[in-house]
Fold:
Amino acid sequence: MEKMFLKVSDVMKVLDVSESYAYKLNKELENKGCFVIAGRIDRKFFYEHFYGTQKGSD
Structure:
């Protein structure tokens, strides 16, 4: 079974961004009324937000 969340280090690697930028994604989810876990982001949200798909390949 695929993990439900990506770690901040995964997001940094996939997008080649800084840690602070990766954490901003949680802020966006929080602003939408979602509960967030520091250092983790929902995999489905991530791939839909950046690639317009529900699932991406790692």
